[in-house]
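Standup notes
- DV: blocked on the single-chain target, sequence here:
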Amino acid sequence: MTALFNLLFLGIQLYSFALIIYIFMSWFPGARESSFGSFLAKICEPYLEQFRRFIPPLGMIDLSPIVAIFVLYLARMGLNELYYMLMF
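- DV (later): unblocked, structure below
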């Protein structure tokens, strides 16, 4: 049971890092067109698109990635609490 929670926790954390890298890649011209950038786009855009439906950009600033990362943080904390509730 512990291994499953650790694996889920690690997966959420790695996905959060992938989102952060994907967001920073927008600052560099041509970075998203690389093979690594297209891989990150395939795994990050479907998740970010869910938030872009409800959070419109403010001028040139897109706030949906901030909310998406915060939701992943809440999921990690919720998973952590669930683990402690079930194990103790």
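- Follow-up: The chain has three helices and no strands.
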